[in-house]
Amino acid sequence: MRTIAHISDLHFGRHNLDVMENLLASIEKSRPDLVVISGDFTQRARHVEFAEARRFLDRIAVPKLVTPGNHDVPLYNLFHRYLRPFRKYDRYIAPLDQPLGFFQDDGLAVLGLNTARRFTRKNGRLSQVQISSIRRIFASVPRGTTKIIVTHHPLAVPDSEDSLELAGRAIAALKAIADAGVHLLLSGHHHRALSGPVTEVSSAGSILIVHAGTAISTRTRGVGGNSYNLIQIAHGQISVRVMEWGKGQGFVEAGIASYAFDGNRWRAK
Ligand SMILES: [Fe+2]
Ligand SMILES: [Fe+2]
């Protein structure tokens, strides 16, 4: 069995220190094999915010896979926004396209794709190059491996949910994702925890979609509180526990959804 702690939208600069300390304690207690952080590390992409995010990452002892969000691109410094949008992210968090963008062990293959863009401040998108890399990267992954893609902006919404704004080129990306046999998509951005299969992508099967809430920021947007996802993967079964901040109790399980894969489709159990 593998356990992934999926956290997102930390927004250092608009974060709650008490929630952050409890999050670190909760992650340590859960003993994940991997911590995935799906972007929006900062509120305004300031040095001080990135430095706090770096200190936070350094306190997580297990492997981490990270990808940036739209808030990690400078908004007001137009020079840096247009010419070097990921300069601070590269310096403080991880050089883009370096090892922290791909994780593989004998059960998991997890690819992070950057959807944040200098010109589209909010919505983000994938490039054609990134989309074609999906088939190539997963082609060499052994059978029996659970294949996962992490983006900040979601590429799909579960069938059971109302539509939400998706990353640009999501339709083309989903075709490549289905062709590559990717099982699971993790994302953030909307600050809402939800999960479920999406079937409209391919007549042959479905993909499991998991969105994370905001882990420690005060930007909870009135839909649930602070939360992160604890994802357990074993033999074609995936469970998604939403761990929600409860004042005085730390992060506690607020709900669990379980899914089984029949070789083509995910079904809620
Ligand atoms: Fe966010
Ligand atoms: Fe975002």
What's the short story on this structure?
The chain is α/β, with parallel strands linked by helices and 269 residues long.
Q: Could you say what the CATH architecture is?
A: 4-Layer Sandwich
> What small molecules accompany the polymer chains?
fe (ii) ion
Unreliable runs: none
The value of Rg in angstroms is 17 Å
**Helical amount:** 10-25%
Q: Under CATH, the topology is which?
A: Purple Acid Phosphatase, chain A, domain 2
Cα distance spanning the termini: 18 Å
The biggest beta sheet reads: 7 strands, mixed
Q: Strand order, biggest sheet?
A: 3-2-1-10-11-12-13
Give the integer mean of the pLDDT values.
Answer: 92
Strand content: 25-35%
CATH superfamily caption: Metallo-dependent phosphatases
